[in-house]
Amino acid sequence: MHDFDQIIIHYHEVALKGGNRDLFEKRLQRNIAAFLRPYGIHSVMRLRGRMIVSLNPHANRQAILDALRRVFGIAYFAPISLAEQNIEAIRSRVMEHLGDHRFESFKVDTRRSQKAFPMNSMEVNRVIGAEVQAASGARVDLTHPELTINIEIFDNQAAIFTEKIAGAGGLPIGTGGRAVSLLSSGIDSPVASFKIMKRGIQIIFVHFHSVPYTSMASKENVERIVSILNQYQYRSRLYLVPFLDYQQHITSVVPAPYRVIMYRRAMLRMAEAVAHRHKALALVTGENVAQVASQTLPNLRAINEVASLPILRPLAGDDKIEIIEKAREIGTFEISTAPYEDCCSLFVPGNPETRANLNMVRRLDAQIDHETLVKKAIESAEVKEFRLYEEDAETV
Ligand code: ATP
Ligand code: MG
After folding, report:
1. CA 41, CA 53: separation in Å to the nearest integer?
2. Given CB 3.0 to 4.6 Å as the disulfide criterion, which of 51, 130, 262, 317 pairs with 9?
3. C-alpha to C-alpha distances, 154 to 8, 117, 135, 157, 159, nearest whole angstrom
4. Domains of the chain, start order
5. Which atom of ligand 1 is nearest to the CA of 218?
6. Which of the 8 DSSP states describes residue 38?
C-alpha cells in the first residue's frame, strides 16, 4: 500500500437522529483519537457524515489500521488520497493513487455530497473511467470489478480510495451508559460482554472466585480475558470478589441440588451492589436457555427474581457453535478452554435441580443474611484497572 496521509471513516447514519447523532459523532471522534494517539496522528475531523483522520509523517500506519478495526461505531474505513475539488485535480490524484497497481477490470463509484460541484456522479464516473481505461488497458465491469475506485466529493475536497476495510460496527463505547457483566472464565460470558460493549455500553467486569478452593489460574484467566476485551473498550475495571465465605453460608443451609441456584442468586446480589456503586443500569450474563441445568426456564426465573436491575442475556438464543465462533474471533476462546476450576461446582455433589420450586428457594434463601455477606464480599474485593496504553495508567 502507498504511504497514505489520511484515512476516511464511515459510520452508519441510519437511525441516528437529532441530538443522538451529535452525541454519537462526538463520542466516536473522541474514541478514535484516544485509540490512535500513540501512533502519530495529527487530527480527527468531522465532516458531513464522515470523519477524516490526518496522520503525522512518521505515523505507524499499520498500528493505526489495526487499532481502527477495534473502535465500535465504525462501519468501514479506508486510506485515502485527497484532491482539490476540480475534475483535473481529481483525475491526476486518481492516477497517482493507482500508481503501478495492475488490474484486469474496474469501476468508478462516485458519491457527491457537495452539490455545488459542477458535474454529477455519473459524469465523474465516465470521465475518470475513460482515463483509467486508457492508461491501464483494463476493462470496465460494473457488477464484479476487480478494483473499485471510490471518489467522494464533499466540503471543498475530494477523497479517492480503493481499499475499504470493515470496521467493528455497533455504537461508540460510552454512548449507552454502563452495565456490570458477570464474567466467569468460561466461553460464554466474554462473548456476552463483547456483544453488549458493541452496543456502546461501558462494561464493568465482576468475577467471583473461591480461592484457595479454586486455583489462582482461573483468576489469571479472567484477567487475561479482560485485557483482550479491553482492546475494544479502552479502559476497564475488574472486581475480583471472594465468594468462599458466602458459599459456605449457603452450603450450611441449602441441600446440594439447590446450591447452584443459590450461588447464582448470590452472584446477582453482589453484582447489583457493584452496579449501584458505579451507577450502572443493567447486569449482563452469558446465560443461554437450557444449555445447562441452572439455565432451564424454571431456574432462570428463580435466579432472576433477586435482581431489580434488568439482566441482559445477549446469548439467550444462540447456538453453542455460534458462540464458539464469536469467541474465536474476539480471541477469548483459547483462554476460556484452558483448564480451570469453576466456583459453582464447589460443594455440589450429585445432580442439580432443573425445575426449582420457587417456594422452596425462597424458604431456604430467608435463612441467609445476604445483606451482610454481600457487603463483606464487595468490601474485600480486589479491584483491577486496565488501560489500553501503559502511559495512561497514571492519568486516569
Ligand atoms: P460461561 O461460559 O460464561 O461460564 P456457562 O455456560 O458455563 O457460562 P454457567 O456456569 O451456568 O454457564 O454460568 C452462567 C453465567 O453466570 C455466566 O455466563 C456468567 O455470566 C455467570 N457466572 C458464572 N460463574 C461466574 C463467576 N465465577 N464469576 C462471575 N460470573 C459468573
Ligand atoms: Mg461457566
Report:
1. 7
2. 51
3. 12, 9, 26, 6, 8
4. 6-166 (3.30.2130.30), 178-387 (3.40.50.620)
5. 27
6. G
Cell numbers given for 62: 499499520
**175 contacts 26 by C-beta, under 8 angstroms:** no
Mean per-residue pLDDT pooled into runs of 10, the chain (396 residues): 85 71 91 96 92 96 97 97 95 95 96 89 97 96 97 94 96 95 95 97 96 83 96 96 96 93 97 98 94 82 96 96 96 85 70 87 96 98 94 50
Angle at 374 between CA 196 and CA 348, to 5 degrees: 85
Ligand 1 center–CA 182 separation, angstroms? 7
Q: 386 Cβ partners below 8 Å, 6+ apart?
A: 226, 227, 230, 235, 236, 237, 238
97 alpha carbon – ligand 1 mean position (Å): 51
Q: What cell numbers appear for 246 in the block?
A: 458466602
Q: Which ligand is nearest to the CA of 265?
A: 1
Nearest Cα to Cα of residue 4 among 49, 47, 62, 85: 62
